[in-house]
Amino acid sequence: MLKIVEKLPSYLQNSWRQEAKDTRVQKNEITGILHLTAFVGRAAEIANDPVYGMAPYSQNESTRKDDSRQGRRYEDMHKGRPVSVMTNVSVREHVSCPLCSGEDVLFKCEDF
Q1: Model-wide pTM > 0.85
Q2: What is the domain extent for residue 92?
Q3: Neighbour-count burial of 69, counting CB atoms closer than 10 A to its CB (0-12 exposed, 13-18 middle, 19+ buried)
């Protein structure tokens, strides 16, 4: 599990360590792969939020005005920043686990 955590961005590694410690202290539980997958899932939802997902990469209005005075456009300064784009999205009404064919998704499967 440590190998997986090492692949996360450093800010998520720090958040995970905090969550693992809190779980151990407050619930007297050792975090496992299910805890980690739930944590990563929540982090992915936050990062892909259509309104606030790009918040760390944006600037406030006064900073944009300062940048334009220096002859640089805001858009030019932020080229190459990650963008989340979803295409061809469909909603599935029935989701089943590919491992056990149960009613849950794979990461919630007890056999997984």
Answers
A1: no
A2: 2-108
A3: exposed
